Amino acid sequence: MAELKAPSLQSLLDSDRGSTDSLLAESLQLDFDDLDDKEYAIPPTDVLPSLEAVMSEFDTELDSDVASELGMPMPTPSPSLVGDGDSMRAGGVGGGGSIMRYTLLHGISSQLSSAAERVNAGAASCCAVAAYIAVGTSHGHILNFDVTQTLRWAHQDKHSQGSVSSLAFNGDSSRLMAGYARGLVIVMDTQTGDALRELFEVITPNTGVLHVKWTSRSSLALCADAGGSVWSLNFTRKLGIRGCQSRCLFSGARGEVCAIEPLLMEGLGSRRHELDQYCIVALATLSKYFIVTVRPRLRVIKYHSLQGPADCLPLLAWHLVLIQAADATRSVDPVLVVGRGNQLFFHQLFVANGRITLLYLRHVQLQSNLLSAHWLGPKCVASLDTSEVGHLIDVRSSKEMECMDMANAGLVYNSAQFKGLATGGNVSPAFALAGTNACYNSIVSRGTQLYILGNHSLHIIGVRSWSERISFLVKNHRWQEACQLALDGYLNSTERPRKRLQAKERIIQLFKEYISNASRPPPDYCLGSIINCMIVIGELDLLWSELWERLQNTSKTSSELFLQHISEHIEQESIHSLNPIISQALVEFWLNRNPIKLEQLILKLDWLSLDLNQVLKAVKRHKLYKAQIYLNTQALNDYTSPLTELLPLVTTAGLEERYLGNCLLVYISSCLAGRGFPSGDIPLEHRHQVKHDVLRCLTSQHSRDKEIADVEEELPYPYLRTLLKFDTRETLNVINLAFQEREFSNDLGYSYRKRIINLLLEIMTPENATWAEIGCLLNFIAQQISQQCLPCDKHLLERVLSYLAQEHIANESSRQHSERESAWHELLSQNCLNQISSDEEQLQLAKKAKCYYVEEYLLEKMKSYDHILDCYIKNPSRHDMMFAYMERHVQEPERRIYDQLKDNLRQMLDINAQQTTRLVALHYPERISELIDLLSSQKDDAKYLFTPEQIEEFLRSHEGYRLDKAIEIVESCGPLKRSVIYLYEKQESYAKAFDLSMDMLREADSTNQASKEAQEISALLGRSVKTLPTAQLERCWFSLLQYILPHQELQSLTKSLLHEASQHIDLHNLVQLIMQTHNVSSSFGDIKDLLMGMLVSSRQQTEALRTASEILCQDLHKDFVEQQKLSRRGLWITSLRCSICRQRLGGGAADSTVLIMGKCGHSVHEKCLIERQEELKEDDEPCPRCAAMPAPLPSTPSPASHLRLNDHHDESRMSPMRLPCPSQHLLSQSSALELGALQLKAPPRRFY
Amino acid sequence: MATTPRSGGAAGSGAAQRPNGTSQNKSCQFKLVLLGESAVGKSSLVLRFVKGQFHEYQESTIGAAFLTQTICIEDTVVKFEIWDTAGQERYHSLAPMYYRGAQAAIVVYDIQNQDSFQRAKTWVKELHKQASPNIVIALAGNKADLSNIRVVEFDEAKQYAEENGLLFMETSAKTGMNVNDIFLAIAKKLPKNDGANNQGTSIRPNGNETNRPTNNCCK
């Protein structure tokens, strides 16, 4: 790289100062690398390094050192990173701090510091970056640096125009335009630093410059001033004299423009875009943004309102982006991002039908307000928020990928220009407020880098490419992440072959780095991911050779780890073949650990990668039968040796042998069917041979060893014999399956079949096999014959039939029996037995052998339907079919369904009463009575249709029957006492129920039942408490107890029964009863509890009585106190006249008592009141006066009663202890409120 | 993103390394297969070469066994991946699988057994017909320690080898005679680096195997 850089830039700059065409061409390529080179046929540019390339080169060297030197926090990964696969470039998962790269430009920063110190240049105020880096200072100096950070020239303003407020390079970096805080605009030659034009009066007088920008036309520039106006500067050069025409595009009077951003279509290379002919500018005020064409004529294309916080400026940025529309058309169009506050809006600008159109794309909302928003490449936007944290936002997923704190950069703000401090502050307040956060000229972007200007420093935030990120992660030994990232990139490039190749190369490079690194820290932890990487990209050879060798050299554990990882991949079937070196190690490794696992691995591996000598020997030693069979068949193409070697080992003894036996059965079956073991198919060309070989091997008369050694006692056909001994049924199944193959279906095949059957018969002699096994065989043969798979052979048939028709077979299970039957049935239905015996004979045989199904079939066949139902009835498995049969043939008179039904009615009812009755009701409704008669005539041995339990359940679960009728019915039915009891109880005639229960108890024949009955009774009595009178209840209990107590066997119950009883009957009587009835042997213990209970309850009752009397006394006392209090109360009267007779009170006759109404204070003579009451026929004594008047409070009743206190003779009228009426009233009503109300109302009192 | 494909060392390393397995020009890897009738001493020969051991009663090989050995010739590290096939007739069908991708083959016969020599000849024929045309074939007359009861004469075999362009040596796994030499001779005759940058060690038709090379067999 070094030799690349030196000649290109240096020589260019030195030799050809005037022309920077090549540099331009180079810089044009920058932003565009991301578009797929292949798709756009852009030639690779290896010729010159770009500025970015040069920058990033020294970045990587400095990277971390720089940051630490400056006390800058290293880029910290933010927690909220995207996990999107295709978020970045070639696609990376989340940032993890690897995406953003921070760099401090040391050279420029030190130059800035020294300029400030030595020539009093002041702090930096703005910057511009193109092929050069220009920095303006607050004292009007402009410093121009080249890419190597060397100062090319410095320019000092001689006109005291204040700070440099804005800088801009033109498209080819040949001119630098600078704007000053006091309004001067100058244009300089970037090569020499000469000011070519000094323009003093091109903008609103007495305002400062905010922005200077070059447009896409080389002679046209734009300038925005602090007054909010935008001016176009058209540079002319007439007759060698440089001039400038300035024109006001927008006046600040109609909305102050804060941001301008011309669309520069650079980067498209040779391709032309429709928008090239226009000169387009985006403008933003504090409330709107506009898209404007300046050339060919000034026109507003579109404007939108733009809301946001008052102290946030609008942000504008263009970039060319490859856009894939929904209809899969692709286009490269400029996309404008407009930001304000925490919002970002994306708009696409394109030409449709000759009109420039702005299309809204998407909207991103961030967490905090933004200072700046710049594109870094076409896929992400970098922004700084107000707390100076840089965010990287992926546009496609609208998610933040990474963030980085830039607070230590000492960011320069352009607030002074916005506030117009240099020109006396003649700006609008809104503008000045918004300008507090202005960073338009101190944060600039170029390519994928963001330049951030500090007071005396320049910082770069770059975006690492996929490859660089991998390098970064590798450098920090984050292998896991690096592998993951690399793999994601590889997988994402699926559709782009060229990119995929590059990704693969990068991964291989990563692998190499890993290998060369693996020795120092043994990075076992990421071995898995690196292996995974290599397997995914398919570079297995590198794994086997380099990595394996390296690991073997490091340690044993790491190579074991490697093997384990590889095994996992084999199990997941992501690799099928290994290097033999690895497979040897693998086999060795798993043999020592887990041979079962080894077997699984072998089954999944290609045999060519195995060392057969090693594996086969190991497999045999460890009895990995499946693997052995697999290898023998696949590799050695030897299908018989598994049989000859393994079959002798099969027995039914151990688990292992059984497993082997089953394996072999499956193996034989799949061989005979032409399938491979354990999966796949036998190659077509071998298939026939394999089948033939296997079969011949199976049916060979002597085992292979026998041919060599003379083992005399070996029975013939050892292999088949072993299998049959192992599992007759399954072996026969295997043969049956094999018979269905094509090979057995021609004439030759038939003879094979016959031979095999004969062999089987020869082997399965009664001496060598159980009857069950022979049964299996004969069933099998019968099946074969009936399926016409075997030629009919009379001898064979007879033999089979003799088995089938056996009358009794010892230990025959129902399954065997039904198999026998069905085999017979099959034979019959195929007419195979015609030649050896007639149907009648068969019928006899079937009857003897209890093969009812066969019998049924034969009857059906012979059309003798008379007793066919018998067969059904006798055969439990055919019961269901019986009813179907009857249904089906009920209409056919010759089947005599009804007669048979009649004969067998009872049995059928037993089998399924419901179905039977349904059948009868459906088809023979007119004969029901006949049938019932029949049934009732057989009643002597009556078996009821319902069990007593069912009846009881029915009674319990149903409502609405008439009890008396039900009792009548149930009683008439005899032994349904329990139901009767239930009904009695329901009828509430407990006495009867009890009597019945007692009967049952007496009749109970076992202790168990008796105790159950007794409990039932006690429960019954418990329920009857409410209805049964006490005396009767007591009597019941007594009779129960009298029965229970003498019975020794019911001792266990006595206690609980006594307890129950004690709740309901008098304890005294109970004890008496016990004393009288208890037999001698009874101990005190039985009644101890009872007595204790008596004592306790007596104590409780005494206590209760005492308490009750105490409470009563208290009440009385309280009342008395109350009464006394009342009697002592003073009374007032309103007038001294009786309110009825208007006579004076007290003054009259001595016998006239005076009543005073306590509430109202009216007073009357008693005599008068009585008279009045008699008149009015009123019982109570309301105050006559109040009653006469309309009551002021009708709701409150007048005192309802009074107390007579006769001083002369009150002996007969009332006792002193008599409770006063109000109290009685009170007690009955018992309301605290009323009590309060009444207490206020004193009772009337007699006055003398 | 400006520099995605061209940054770092990818371009540089791409030039230095071949994409195939031979990563350095100082090392190469060959697949070698041993053929011959059963019990002529193939496994013993390999065992002697790889481990320097000899067993009087070598178990017969099942299918094929795999071994590796690395040797140095001049400045090149040669790694042999050796497939020692089983000689029994029943494994004959396996052999093509192994010699198909092999760069070298050693056909072994027993100098006491004329049949084995005939069998070796048929193997050579088969190799010429079926194997890759560039395969280097060596003929080894094994059990040379028992030369007093030999049946196959040295000259006869030598003549046959020359006619068919084979390397030829009489070897003895028991004594170790010529065992390393035959492998070395093969290694020398094999084209290094697959013809990518011929550095003089290309095929030398008259590879004079009789001159003793410095036998620096390194692990």
TrEMBL record, chain A:
Tagged with keyword Metal-binding: yes
Listed name of the protein: GK20314
Keyword Zinc applies: yes
SMART domains named among the record's database cross-references: RING
Similarity comment text for this entry: Belongs to the VPS8 family.
Pfam families: Beta-prop_VPS8, TPR_Vps8
Single GO cellular component term: late endosome
InterPro entries (alphabetical): Vps41/Vps8, Vps8_central_dom, WD40/YVTN_repeat-like_dom_sf, WD40_repeat_dom_sf, Znf_RING, Znf_RING/FYVE/PHD
Keyword line: Metal-binding, Zinc, Zinc-finger
Top-level taxonomic group: Eukaryota
Gene3D superfamilies assigned: YVTN repeat-like/Quinoprotein amine dehydrogenase, Zinc/RING finger domain, C3HC4 (zinc finger)
Domain called RING-type: residue spans: 1138-1186
Any GO BP: protein targeting to vacuole
GO molecular function: zinc ion binding
SUPFAM superfamilies referenced in this protein's UniProt entry, alphabetically: RING/U-box, WD40 repeat-like
From TrEMBL, chain B:
Keyword Protease: no
Keyword Metal-binding: no
Pfam families, alphabetized: Ras (PF00071)
Biased composition (Polar residues): 195-219
Gene of this entry: Dwil\GK14984
EC number: 3.6.5.2
Catalysed transformations (reactions): GTP + H2O = GDP + phosphate + H(+)
SUPFAM superfamilies: P-loop containing nucleoside triphosphate hydrolases (SSF52540)
Enzyme class: hydrolase
GO CC term, one of those recorded: synaptic vesicle
MF GO annotations: enzyme regulator activity; G protein activity; GTP binding
Region annotation Disordered: where it falls in the sequence: 1-24, 194-219
Protein localization: Early endosome
UniProt cross-references to Gene3D superfamilies, sorted A to Z: P-loop containing nucleotide triphosphate hydrolases
Main location: other
Family: Belongs to the small GTPase superfamily. Rab family.
Name the UniProt record assigns to this protein: small monomeric GTPase
UniProt record, GO biological process: axon extension; border follicle cell migration; cellularization; clathrin-dependent endocytosis involved in vitellogenesis; dendrite morphogenesis; dorsal closure, amnioserosa morphology change; endosomal vesicle fusion; endosome transport via multivesicular body sorting pathway
Keywords from the UniProt entry: Endosome, GTP-binding, Hydrolase, Lipoprotein, Nucleotide-binding, Prenylation, Protein transport, Transport
